[in-house]
Write a structure and sequence with these properties.
The complex is a heterodimer of chains A (about 300) and B (about 400). By secondary structure, chain A is mainly α. Chain A is built from 14 helices and 2 strands. Chain B is an alpha/beta fold and about 400 residues long. Chain B has a 7-stranded mixed beta sheet with strand order 9-8-10-11-12-15-16, with helices on both faces. A 3-stranded parallel beta sheet of chain B has the order 4-1-5, with helices on both faces. Chain B has a two-stranded antiparallel ribbon with strand order 2-3. In chain B, helix 6 packs parallel to helix 7. Classes of the chains: A mainly alpha (about 300), B alpha/beta (about 400). The interface between A and B is large, with 36 and 36 residues.
Chain lengths: ~300, ~400
């Protein structure tokens, strides 16, 4: 009970801070909450099943692009609804056709997906509409974006917690441990994976839709930036992708670190980023939370 | 709790006094506080090439020159040095937006210089407007400039729109057709990206109005590296004029392909990259007669001097399209500060209404836009010279047909 109270107080505090922040700090918080959402949503599917997906930006970008296409013809809440729906349908199609792939094949496919969607949109815009580059003129303030993103983050973590305690979560864990065993114990593999993948992807699409009014101008090469996918994965892995708070624990320090690096070392940033990726994979293969737990257990073992 | 002894208190007091004095003395040495100028440009990612050629070298050159001369002159005649705050936007609009927020609300810079490219400039326009900073959006090619200038009152659009460049090219070709040097067929290829689409959309009706038949009209995806098929088909189309609305790597690739397959159209026009200083080297020393976007008045002493200074500072000459305009926008800023100081409203008013003396000649914006630009240029001798508008000071007549490779 006290845990829930703590969570509620934290969320209320987080919701109240924009009034005390400068524009830059608010921008920082938006980025931070966005990556917490992305990493948590990513882990919702990939954390348990261990299907490493590099498709994050495919959905994130689709969300942003949906807003760019519809923002002048529909009211904002409907635009968000459409974005969620498009993410849902897209995830359904992609999931149905690919979740039978396993291991490295799925990774490669998911990486290709972002490029595929980008090229499809480009082809459509060039040959059908004859415009590339769309404008988002919405009266959504930075605060509005922050609150929406915060709500989505809370929803995502809440959903993860709920799933973790229910049959779906257990089924996902079994699939992650051994698909063969899962199939033999009567788990409907495709259905379970599809549900988790669709939920995760829809949330990511919504995140893209919510963030997009900050960019004003949207074109495929800008919104389908593969770095987003890589950052999401590395954040979730750093914290521990199979734990509820893991993605958050990875996203917060890494996001702040990246921001600090890009401000302090603008010229060497990409090199440091690459080294960081390697370091995370080598030093914390199970994630920070697991490492911290192991360390604590060792300490206990030493004193006992 | 420990009680503070008298000795400790005295030491602390002495320290505080010393620190106070050192602050006071340093303030006395620096007569005027520096002017903080900030910018966030792409040092990495997709936009880094463009920013590295057109934007960053000019910012650096200008800041160096101003500081060597003792700083920016204020209306009261005092000089203030420039202190630069720079960030890498990693070619991501999200990072760019955050960097601008940081410059405005955290670093509280006096002026923000624009990023490179149309998309990035649009991404920051609402923010710049909200913070009240004037935005000299130099490297933005957009047909919607009038609309944007009306939407964001302190934004200035200085590189025209795709339509302008297409019409300029149509004018040059129309004159050549009237003189009987080229036939009425054009082979046109364009990159499937913002720039290519904008230009091709303007070019199709412009060529038609000028009495041309577009015998070959193809788009190719961004990142294409093999142009043999495209160029062979263009060669077979029977057109005397080859027009490519392309990006730098494509412009270079097409030039090399045309040379290797012996494609010698009478007019050979490539998009961005054609006016880069490296182009003569890329074309194996055979740039003569190649047309492209932009141009400079190569006979102007101010431009010649600017090319020399740029080469000395950056190690390479500037490109002959947006570089000189970028530098001119900085001169505008310098002169505006000297006239009205750093107040944003006054600066904005100055940019909108006054005229400035720059390396591209006197500049006066019309409805917050620079319209006195070169639309088409051509390599003649060792310089990329402006052809159109033909009435503009320094315009040279076009060399058609282009000498064979």
């Amino acid at each position: 009970m006290s845990r829930i109270a703590l969570a509620v107080v934290t969320v209320v505090l987080l919701a109240a801070i924009p009034g005390y922040l400068s524009d830059y700090s608010l921008g920082l918080m938006i980025g931070l909450v966005t990556y917490v959402t992305l990493a948590s949503a990513w882990a919702l599917f990939s954390g348990h099943t261990r299907y490493v997906s590099l498709a994050t930006v495919a959905f994130y970008g689709s969300g942003a692009y949906t807003v760019a296409v519809l923002n002048e013809s529909l009211p904002y809440p409907l635009v968000l609804l459409c974005a969620g729906l498009i993410g849902f349908l897209l995830a359904l199609i992609v999931g149905l056709s690919t979740l039978r792939l396993a291991g490295i094949y799925f990774v490669i496919f998911s990486f290709g997906l972002a490029e595929l969607i980008r090229q499809l949109i480009t082809w459509y815009e060039v040959n059908v509409t004859g415009t590339l580059g769309r404008y988002i003129f919405l009266d959504v303030t930075a605060r509005g974006i922050y609150w929406q993103m915060l709500a989505l983050a809370v929803f995502t973590i809440g959903l993860s917690a709920w799933i973790g305690r229910h049959r779906l979560g257990l089924a996902l864990k079994v699939i992650g441990d051994d698909e063969m065993v899962a199939a033999h114990s009567g788990i409907d593999l495709s259905r379970t994976k599809l549900i988790a993948f669709t939920l995760s992807s829809t949330i990511i699409t919504l995140a893209g839709a919510i963030a997009s009014p900050r960019w004003t101008y949207v074109e495929p090469s800008l919104v389908f930036n593969p770095t987003v996918s890589f950052l999401t994965v590395i954040m979730a892995l750093l914290g521990g992708a199979n734990r509820l708070w893991g993605p958050l624990m990875g996203a917060v320090p890494l996001f702040l670190l990246f921001e600090w690096l890009s401000v302090s070392f603008p010229d060497t940033y990409p090199v440091i980023l690459g080294l960081m990726f390697i370091a995370v994979v080598f030093l914390f293969p199970q994630g920070l939370l697991s490492s911290a737990e192991a360390f604590r257990n060792r300490l206990k073992g030493g004193t006992a | 709790m420990t009680r503070m002894t008298r000795r400790k208190a005295m030491t602390a007091l002495a320290c505080a006094t010393a620190i106070g004095f050192s602050f006071a003395s340093s303030a006395a040495v620096a007569a005027e506080p520096p002017i903080k100028i900030g910018y966030a440009v792409a040092k990495t990612g997709a936009n880094a090439t463009g920013a590295g050629i057109t934007t960053i070298p000019n910012y650096q050159l200008w800041v160096k020159e101003v500081n060597q001369a003792g700083g920016l002159t204020m209306p009261d005649g005092k000089k203030r040095m420039i202190e630069v705050v720079e960030y890498d936007d990693r070619s991501s609009n999200e990072d760019l937006v955050r960097a601008i927020e940081r410059l405005a609300s955290q670093d509280k810079v006096d002026f923000i210089l624009p990023p490179w490219g149309t998309g990035p400039n649009l991404a920051i326009a609402p923010l710049m407007d909200r913070f009240g900073y004037p935005q000299l959006a130099v490297t933005s090619v957009t047909d919607k400039a009038p609309e944007f200038a009306a939407r964001w009152k302190r934004s200035y659009w200085m590189l025209g729109g795709g339509h302008d460049y297409a019409v300029g090219l149509a004018n040059v070709l129309k004159a050549a057709k009237a003189a009987g040097t080229i036939n009425n067929k054009i082979a046109m290829v364009s990159v499937a990206d913002g720039f290519g689409i904008d230009l091709v959309k303007g070019a199709r009706p412009a060529f038609k109005d000028a009495g041309f038949e577009v015998a070959y009209d193809k788009t190719y995806p961004l990142g294409t590296s093999d142009f043999a098929a495209l160029m062979n088909e263009a060669k077979k189309s029977g057109a005397d004029s080859f027009v490519a609305f392309s990006y730098p790597p494509d412009s270079f690739g097409m030039t090399k392909t045309a040379q290797s397959i012996g494609f010698n159209p009478k007019v050979f026009y490539v998009g961005v990259g054609g006016a880069f200083p490296i182009f003569p080297k890329v074309s194996d020393g055979k740039a003569e007669g190649v047309m492209s976007i932009g141009g400079v008045d190569a006979s102007s002493p101010a431009i010649q001097d600017y090319f020399k200074r740029h080469t000395a500072s950056a190690g390479a000459p500037p490109d002959s399209w947006a570089s000189a305009i970028t530098y001119a926008s900085l001169q505008m800023l310098q002169q505006a500060v000297q006239r009205v100081g750093l107040d944003h409203a006054k600066l904005a008013n100055e940019f909108s209404t006054s005229s400035f003396d720059t390396i591209i000649g006197p500049v006066k914006l019309k409805d917050n836009q620079l319209r006195d630009l070169w639309w088409v240029g051509q390599w003649q001798g060792n310089a990329f010279k402006g052809l159109d508008p033909a009435g503009k000071t320094g315009a040279v007549p076009a060399v058609i047909p282009k000498p064979t490779w």
